[in-house]
Automatic annotation (TrEMBL):
Topology term for the membrane: Multi-pass membrane protein
Molecular functions (GO terms): G protein-coupled receptor activity; olfactory receptor activity
Role played: Odorant receptor.
Pfam families: 7tm_4
This protein's GO CC annotations: plasma membrane
Organism listed in the record: Vombatus ursinus
SUPFAM superfamilies noted in UniProt: Family A G protein-coupled receptor-like
Residues annotated as transmembrane: 23-47, 89-113, 144-166, 192-214, 235-258, 270-290
Organism taxonomic ancestry: Eukaryota, Metazoa, Chordata, Craniata, Vertebrata
UniProt KW keywords: Cell membrane, G-protein coupled receptor, Membrane, Olfaction, Receptor, Sensory transduction, Transducer, Transmembrane, Transmembrane helix
The protein's name in its UniProt record: Olfactory receptor
Compartment(s) where it occurs, according to its Swiss-Prot or TrEMBL record: Cell membrane
Domain (G-protein coupled receptors family 1 profile) ranges: 39-288
Family designation: Belongs to the G-protein coupled receptor 1 family.
Chief place where the protein resides: membrane
Length: 318
């Protein structure tokens, strides 16, 4: 009979046990976090302050920025602190809480990206009905549904992990608590509740992926019919980078969660979570701020307002 040991905490093994590499890891994660933090806070602030950006598209973008900020803040700061302090311990309750928040934000972002693809589909393919379909009330309901669905999945996965028996091993080969590495240290051969949860999540994820693909197919088909070359290039320059980051996000989540639990850990197992927790949070602000004329205009207005608030006149501008 297997002897079960009460696990009170976990140890993150991370990318390396070498102190120098841990410092490099901390510096890299810190730079990534600062870029994501600054970019997402900037977008959130600009959309909140500029009345011209109070439209459905920017309402969803504001929610996405907040989600990205929450997602990267759930995993990266703790990993940075552990690398610098050379302490890789996290309590069992802390690990489950981190898993809950991570799944909440990842799932909510997937649903929100699906809603955003629908918003762009209506705006480009059915522009005459846009204001009728994308009302303020409906936008709030869709955003709230994304958050609530994410919270439901977060609770489902967390409860599934709590019910797993552990045999004493507490070494997690990852920089945060995620489902695949926790499964590796579980001594149970059957994970029925968790398997059902993961299968349900993957099913919903596939549905969202198919819907997003169909939406963008219609969008690109409509854009190609635009006679003006400038209009086509503008639409493609905004949609393509976003679609690429979206596909990286969805693909890496699927690969990470579809892998069967195994004792050996490869470099890919360590890199995949970075691609769906850190990369989208860092790239989305760059795509939506640097390549968006309205966001650039709002930023210039904010900078000008800061100059005027200091008592400077337009002649003082360089």
């Amino acid at each position: 009979m297997t002897n079960f040991t009460m696990v009170t905490g976990f140890l993150w093994m991370g990318f390396s046990n070498t102190s120098e590499l841990q410092v490099l890891h901390a510096i890299f994660f810190l730079l990534t976090y600062l870029v994501a933090l600054k970019g997402n806070m900037l977008i959130f602030t600009l959309i909140s302050l500029d009345g011209k950006l109070h439209t459905p598209m920017y309402f969803f973008l504001k929610n996405l920025s907040f989600l990205d900020l929450c997602l990267i803040s759930t995993t990266v700061p703790k990993s940075i602190a552990n690398s610098l302090s050379h302490s890789c311990y996290i309590s069992f309750l802390g690990g489950v809480s981190q898993l809950f928040l991570m799944v909440l934000f990842v799932a909510s972002e997937l649903y929100l990206l699906t809603v955003m693809s629908y918003d762009r589909f209506v705006a480009i393919c059915q522009p005459l009905h846009y204001e009728l379909i994308m009302t303020t009330g409906d936008c709030v309901k869709m955003a709230a549904a994304s958050w609530l669905s994410g919270a439901l999945f977060g609770a489902l996965y967390s409860v599934s992990i709590i019910t797993l028996p552990f045999c004493g091993s507490k070494d997690i080969h990852q920089f945060f608590c995620d489902v695949p590495p926790l499964l590796r240290i579980s001594c149970s051969q059957t994970h029925l509740v968790l398997a059902v949860s993961v299968a349900f999540g993957i099913g919903i994820g596939l549905f969202c992926s198919i819907y997003i693909t169909i939406s963008y197919s219609h969008i690109f088909s409509t854009v190609l019919k635009i006679p003006a070359r400038e209009g086509r290039s503008k639409a493609f320059s905004t949609c393509l980078p976003h679609l690429i980051v979206l596909m990286v996000f969805i693909t890496t989540v699927f690969i990470a969660y579809l892998q069967s639990p195994q004792e050996s850990v490869s470099l890919l197992d360590l890199l995949l979570p970075m691609l769906y927790t850190a990369v989208p949070s860092t790239m989305n602000p760059i795509i939506y701020s640097l390549r968006n004329k309205d966001m650039k205009t709002a930023l210039m207005k904010l900078i000008a307002w800061k100059y005027f608030s200091k008592g400077l006149t337009p002649k003082s501008f360089p």
